[in-house]
Specification:
alpha/beta, 11 helices
Length: 316
């Protein structure tokens, strides 16, 4: 079934990014896509083991939100689909890949693997295998920032970004934590990466209110829907949410409408989603879409090609 909701429109001209920012955003997205493609190759060659959940197709969400925050200062809390969040947060690709190979040089010393990326140095609070498990952790991180600020620590103005999928928005932790965050005006952004499928359960069949961002209204917090395939649109709403949180005005619930281009995990034959649905979303590839915008407005195609080659060399 093709996405029934009308994707939000966004005027790219309103983003007002410089060529330098545009190239950085593009590089981050290409790194995420290339890294995940290499993970798939290594997994199918029998070099990587366990459950591996890839992020292909959702790069605009990670880049748009995390690159609108302060690297190494603010906090990022992920899910079991955490490789690209780690990369956007600044964890070196070599450390992320080493973690996937179970090496001591990995960001979690090889003990976490695919679903448990962690890096205190980069403010990455971890990847969490259980659905909605990271929401209370992220809420706690936001609470300690607020508490330290109340005790007079002016440097405690960190913002926390909490990522989770549409399936997690039906779990109790989601509602309890949104209630607390709104009540205490915590500096946190809840980012729902709504890719329409919770493993094999279609989103529309699993919730009484498919428009997740509207659930923010029950708690008196800001809720916004955004095209999760448009990095500039995501960045724009993220910047507003970050500014609101840092100013002490409380949390925001962002629902990013996106789509994973691969199955739930590399062990998933991906037979439940229709060919029509997949093809609809493939035409909205966030990297191709952003590349077209950049070459039409800000940079030369050769600059993007140079980035592609640089990233490919890094991944190899």
């Amino acid at each position: 079934m093709v996405q029934e909701r009308t994707l939000p429109t966004f005027e790219a001209s309103a983003a007002q990014i410089t060529p330098e920012i545009g190239l950085r955003l593009y590089e981050d997205m290409v790194l995420g896509r290339s890294f995940e493609d290499k993970c798939a190759e290594m997994y199918y060659r029998g070099k990587m083991f366990g459950f591996v959940h890839l992020y292909n197709g959702q790069e605009a969400v990670s880049t748009g939100v995390i690159r609108a925050m302060r690297p190494g200062s603010d906090y990022v809390c992920s899910t079991y689909r955490d490789h690209v969040h780690a990369l956007s947060a600044g964890v070196p690709a070599k450390e992320v890949m080493a973690e996937l190979f179970g090496k001591a040089t990995g960001c979690s010393k090889g003990r976490g693997g695919s679903m448990h990326m962690f890096s205190a140095e980069h403010g990455l609070l971890g990847g969490y295998a259980f659905v909605a498990e990271g929401i209370p952790v992220a809420t706690g991180a936001a609470f300690q920032s607020k508490y330290r600020r109340a005790l007079g620590d002016e440097s405690a103005d960190q913002v926390t970004a909490c990522f989770f999928g549409d399936g997690a928005a039906n779990n109790g932790q989601f509602f309890e934590c949104l209630n607390m965050a709104a009540l205490w005006k915590l500096p946190i952004i809840y980012v729902v990466e709504n890719n329409k499928w919770a493993i094999g359960m279609a989103h529309e069949r699993a919730t009484s209110q498919p428009e997740i961002y509207k659930k923010a209204n029950a708690f008196g917090m800001a809720g916004v829907e955004v095209d999760g395939m448009d990095v500039l649109a995501v960045r724009a709403v993220a910047e507003e949410a970050v500014a609101r949180a840092r100013a002490g005005e409380g949390p925001t619930l962002i629902e990013a409408l996106t789509y994973r281009f691969r199955g739930h995990s590399l062990a998933d034959p991906d037979e439940l989603r229709s060919k029509v649905e997949k093809e609809f979303w493939f035409t909205r590839d966030p990297i191709k879409k952003f590349a077209a915008y950049l070459t039409q407005n800000l940079v030369e195609a050769a600059e993007l090609k140079a980035i592609d080659q640089k990233i490919q060399k890094m991944i190899e």
